[in-house]
Amino acid sequence: MKNELKLSDIPKRNPYQVPDGYFDRLPARVMERTESAQEQAFWLESLWRPLRLAVAPLVLLLVFVAAFFYSVPDKPIINLAGVPDTAIVDYLSTYATLETADFAELHNLQEQELPSEMLNVSPKAAEEELEYYDLNHMEY
Amino acid sequence: MYTCCYLGGKPAAEPANSDYSDVPLEDKDLLEKFAQPESRNMAFNQLVRKYQEKVYWHIRKMVIDHDDADDLTQDVFLKVWKNLENFRQDAQLYTWIYRIATNECLSFLSSKKRKFFLPLHDITAELTEKVEASPDLAGDEVQLKLQKAILQLPDKQRLVFNMKYFEDLKYEEMSEILGTSVGALKASYHIAVKKIEEFLKRD
């Protein structure tokens, strides 16, 4: 083989071959595949249609449940600092049930001076109350 | 018994024994008929007959093996069938089909490399073995060496070389098919020719 072989020296030809009649049969084989692809697409479509009908109300129901869940308003948050002391005391005197722990807490408050507004008792009423109870003979 | 066909860039000859009219339709007419359900199959059959040889040989030169080329050609036409409705006529039909065929080839070759965990030269070796085993090249040392030289090129450069050298496509058409500039294609072809001639000089 000569060393100076150039591409232009080589005759241009296709070196590969196909089986006899290959190109006569190929269109029919391709059409067979397109038909099976169409059938497959048809089955997918025919399955999807009833599934879609079944899924639609379920999705609608889920949307309603989600909408209901998110539309329920949260409990209002009350800022206690904004509530007058008298309203708090009124509420506690009406609804609160005192327990032993509350008395213990009261013991801790003995040292502190409670403002008269907090007690919501006039000095005169307080004095009358003290005279009514003989504190020295009370048992706990 | 095998038949050899070489088409270059020329339209494929129509087979004599066809179920449909032997007068080939223009692409525009094919697309119009494909859009109508009653003439869809007839139009597609004509489309396959019109382009099958170009598509097959484009693929065959890349994958070498006939069975692989046969499978890929059918896959290409199946994709054409599925997507022809969405085909926008701002491109030519045959460049669009060529592009699908090219993508199928490149995907096939890269999946083969991934599947067997083989580096590039092993794929080349596998394709070279197929070329050497080809009965058509037996005794034709020059053709055998040319085919082996072409297989040394990287896939995309081989594609460019085949499209220009064997299929005689214009650079503008190749540019539309491959989405690459004409300048880059000219350079790629020039480099490919140099590499092949270097290979041919070697003993």
Please outline what is shown here.
Chain A has 5 helices and 1 strand; from the N terminus they run E-H-H-H-H-H. Chain A has 140 residues and is an all-alpha fold. The radius of gyration of chain A is 48 Å and the shape is rod-shaped.
Give an overview of the whole structure:
The complex is a heterodimer of chains A (140) and B (203). Chain A has helices at residues 22-71, 85-95, 100-109, 116-119, 123-132, and one strand spanning 18-19. Chain A has 140 residues and is mostly helical. Chain A folds into 2 domains: 19-72; 80-137, no CATH class. Chain A starts with 17 loop residues before the first strand and ends in an 8-residue tail after the last helix. The relative contact order of chain A is 0.03. Chain B is mainly α and 203 residues long. Chain B has 2 domains: 22-117, Rna Polymerase Sigma Factor, Chain: A; 118-203, PhyR, sigma-like (SL) domain (Butyryl-CoA Dehydrogenase, subunit A, domain 3, Up-down Bundle), CATH 1.20.140.160. Helices cover 68% and strands 1% of the residues of chain B. Chain B contains 9 helices and 1 strand; from the N terminus they run βααααααααα. Chain B has helices at 27-35, 40-63, 66-83, 93-116, 120-133, 141-151, 155-165, 171-178, 182-201; one strand at residues 2-3. The two termini of chain B are 33 Å apart. Classes of the chains: A mainly alpha (140), B mainly alpha (203). Chain A binds chain B through residues 1, 3-7, 10, 12-24, 26-27, 29-31, 33-34, 37, and chain B through 1-6, 12, 15, 17-18, 41, 44-45, 48-49, 52-53, 56-57, 60-61, 64, 66, 70, 73-74, 77-78, 81-82, 131, 134, 136-137, 140-143, 145-147, 165-166, 193, 196-197, 200-201, 203. Chain A: The chain crosses the membrane at residues 51-70. Chain A: Keywords: Membrane, Transmembrane, Transmembrane helix.
